[in-house]
Amino acid sequence: MDLSPIWLTLKLAAITTLILLLIGLPLAWWLSKKRSLAKIVIEAIITMPLVLPPSVLGFYLLLAFSPQHGLGHWLQQTFDVQFVFSFKGLVLASVIYSMPFMISPVKSAFQQLPASLSQASYTLGKTQWQTFWHVLLPNIKPSLLTATVLTFAHTLGEFGVVLMIGGNIPGVTRVASIAVYDSVEQRDYSSANNYSLILFAITFVMVLSVFIYNKYQAKSPLE
Amino acid sequence: MIAVDIEKKLKAYNGLQVLRIKKTFLPRGITRITGPSGAGKTTLLKMIAGLISPDSGTIKTNDTNWFDASQKINLPPQQRRVGFVFQDYALFPNMTVKQHLEYATDDAEWINRLLTIGGLETFANHKPDHLSGGQQQRLAIMRALAIKPKLLLMDEPFSALDMRMKSALIADLQVLFAELGATTLIVSHNPQELDGVSGDELEIG
Question: What are the b/e assignments for B11-34, b being 16+ CB within 10 Å?
């Protein structure tokens, strides 16, 4: 059995999760603070991939980044970067597609922390960044772990978006979920079953670990 | 000395009410702030600390303008360096007793002294959820004192302490306040709470 789709999937999920941790944490923190109309609109846009058919999102990403059209054409001409039918494109699509899974739980966790925690830190002379790093972030650890694992697991299971923007190029964009579909098309049920079993096992172990961790995590008085 | 002359609209169950405070707190003095629930006692402390902005007026100390609505001056809490004891303690669940104090100051000797005064030496490595209500409240007070503030704002700081512990702690705190030269404002709904502490009184509402 060709294991490259499994490695490619794991690589895609790891990179997507890392990028979403870097941009998602500050974004979720910003969204958790005082509400404004702009924030509500941004939050609605971030949440769209949860309800939109993945093929719709994939279709628009394909249009936007196609080298024949505006943005895609400009990116290719200026930076020699092509997102369509490339691993970079998969990462971009996955970041957009999995964003609500990172942002939503982390934002809720920040909102549930009492405002007096930040205020106490400010009265001690600490900046917003020091407060974020030393006080807020450590106190949302269980939610952060859940968000990270959900983002990773959700990226493993992507199909529609990656097929639309990445296609099915072995070793480049042929991730495990596409390999399953492809094997079934070719009536190779044994390979389909192997890929499916591996995906099932990985996601089950991950989700189970989070449930066990959260159950045995010492409850803080805030939870 | 800190001179407060401010106004702030507060939401009340029967619509809006306006909190008006004009008062000069003398240096090294202890002022007890009393008033019914919802009168704005906590809001007043938070406005002085810079955590909430008044609608209009001024807050001035001897040499600095902390807040002046007409001149659009509003120093952030980090620059006011006010010691603040929150009514809900606002302890950090991820930090031990000692880490709370270390987060506020690098002065190890001062930290040890605060641990002793707060009766918290044996709990130095405990996190807040392993402390009793009284210990948590004492930690909140010690953390506020850790920055050696010139102005200390305390919101119901002794509510969880028994009589004996309270008297002993207040006696120790008075020594510390004198040493720091701190001006202290204490919100308290219990008229007997600060018996024996000579000081001024401000009634709100």
Answer: eeeeeebebebebebeeebbbbbb
Would you call B90 an interface residue with chain A, using a CB distance cutoff of 8 Å? yes
Q: How many domains in chain A?
A: 1
Residues of A in contact with B90 (CB under 8 A): 114, 116-117, 119-120
B-chain CB neighbours of A141 within 8 Å are: 94
Is A126 close to B78, i.e. CB distance below 8 A?
Answer: yes
- ipTM passes above 0.85: yes
Distance CA B119, CA A95 (A): 51
Q: Which domain holds residue A9?
A: 4-216
Q: Is the pTM of this model over 0.90?
A: no
Q: Does A35 touch chain B (CB under 8 A)?
A: no
In order of start, what are the domains of chain B with their CATH numbers?
Answer: 26-53+77-203 (3.40.50.300)
Residue-wise pLDDT for B176-203, tens only, equals: 998 999 999 999 877 666 766 767 888 8
Give the pairing type, strands B56-61 and B65-68.
Answer: antiparallel
Is some CB atom of chain B closer than 8 A to the CB atom of A116?
A: yes
